[in-house]
Structures are given as structure tokens and as C-alpha cells.
Fold this sequence. Notes:
The chain is α+β, with helices and mostly antiparallel strands.
Amino acid sequence: MIDVLMWPWRFIRQEWAAKPGLGLVGKGMRAMVVAMHPRQHWQVVRAIGGAHTKGILKTFPRVVNRYTLPYLSMDFNRLERHQMLKGHYDFLNTALDASFFQRVLAGSMTLWQRELDARSFSIEVSGPCLSREGDLTLVFKMDGRWLYRIAFSLIESALLKLETPPGSPASKHLIYVGQVQGCPGDFDRIRQATGTCGDVAPVDMLIAALEGLADALGITIVAGVALENCLSYQKMLKINSTFSYTHFWEKHHGIRTERGHYILPVPLLEKPINLIKANHRKRTLLKRDFKQSIADEVGRVMHPLVLVRCGAGLVSPRLTRCASYLPG
């Protein structure tokens, strides 16, 4: 009981140590939320302090407070954020071997790598995105320097309140992408990496890696944040970012829900090859083969670390592998 009463004080101390003098009133209000809902905070602390993930409390103690601010999407309320953060770490502690998060916590874990034209390319998974847009991060690197990253968390599918016709089961969990970001000012290197990797852009390689990760975990849905709900929206405006979440998700055949989330089925949809111009088909197939090789390698790396694959849940998006589909 005494430990529970100390949580608001610990919250203030952690937040003040991270950003002294900034937002004292806001910190106080968030501490009051923790004090008013001690059981919920305890649930988050217990989940993150699980046997496989407790090491993060030493390197990133503020992780337990993430749900008190916008998390993954501006659309989620406090209770949803609490359930998502708790659920992510519960999942890591039950579905994946302890060595997975130990390697992530040590810096990063390599999921894919290639040497092409005397350059080194890799995709790694690392820990939480500092802007609260995901608690795992896929990073694409060229010669050891990051060029693109995707931040995501593993949340229960039911939290998005998706609908499905009978006979279309979904996995109990889904991957929610809260951030897709290229390295600012590195457009030339991103273009160089694209050319060297058979005209497959780094961000598309990351999506392929995400598909491989989802397949290994038995996850059948990838969800993504819409531009207006992105936590980095104001920052993107300030730096005049040309990246479009809308174009990105639509390019990968994402379906927008009423709440402003994009839903993608796993395996990811591809435009039928007969609808591709004849003189582009060979190049398209080569690019698809390259992306599939990334997904397959990520799956091979992850499979030995998976203890429990996701089972079918009660809800699913209205998605099939058919040529036509409509949002729910």
C-alpha cells in the first residue's frame, strides 16, 4: 500500500529529472491521474516489470508513464493508452523468448543484412521510440547509419473496435505503427540506398520486415496512424516534411477506418500482376521477390524466439486477399 502511495511522487521525480523546470503544472495533473487510478498504474508497472522486460526500467524508467500522455495516436483516450502499453509488455513477456528483449535492450537486434555494391545494409529492431509513437522500432541502416525507421507497438486487436463479417478471424493482437520517419536531410543517401537495393525504397523494405515479423508472431493485421492523429504532426509541419502518411498507407492498400486508422492485412496485398503494364512486370516481380526475401529472412530470425503465436481473436477488419474490399 505504501508503495502505491509513492507512485505519484515517483512520477514527479522521474519526469522532473528528465525535463527539469518544464511543464510543472502538466506534470502535476498527470501525477493526479496516477494517484486517482493507482490500480491501473500498478498494472502497467507490473507488466513492464515482467521477467523478460524488467531491464528497461533501469535504462528507461519513464516508460511506465507513457500512457499519461498521447501514445501511438492522438485518437486514443487515457484508458485505451493504458491498455495498449500494458498489453504490449504483457505480450513481450508471454509470446517471445527473454533473449529477444535482452538483445533489443542491449542496443538493437539485427533481423536482416546484405552487402551490395560494397555497401552494407541492415534492418534492426531496437527499443522504444522516445516520442511515444511505439515501444519497438525497426531501423533501416546503410553503412551503419540509419536512414529510415518505423516505430510500433503490439496491441490487442479489440482495442481498435474493428468489425468483420463471419468467417474472417483475426489474430488477437495486431501491430500498430505510430511513426514512419526518414532521416532528416539524408534524401541523397536514401535515394542511393533505393537504387542499390533494386529500386526498393528503404521504407518499403521496413514494411517487408514488419510483414515478416507479423507472420512469425501469427499476427494478421498491421494498423497505422493517420496524418492528423500522428503525434509528430506539428513537428512535420515545422520542418516542411514531404512524407504523406495517407499516400504511404494507400500505396500499401490500407483501408481507413472511421476513427482514422489504416488497416492492412498480413500477408500484405499487392496489385495483381496482370494490371501492371507489360513492360514493367519483370521489374515489378524482381522488386516483389526482393521484398519477400526480406520478409522471409526476418521470419527465419524471429521464429526460434517465438514462444506463443497469436490465436484468433473476436474481431477483425473487413479485409480479404480478394481483389475487392471495403472498409468497415
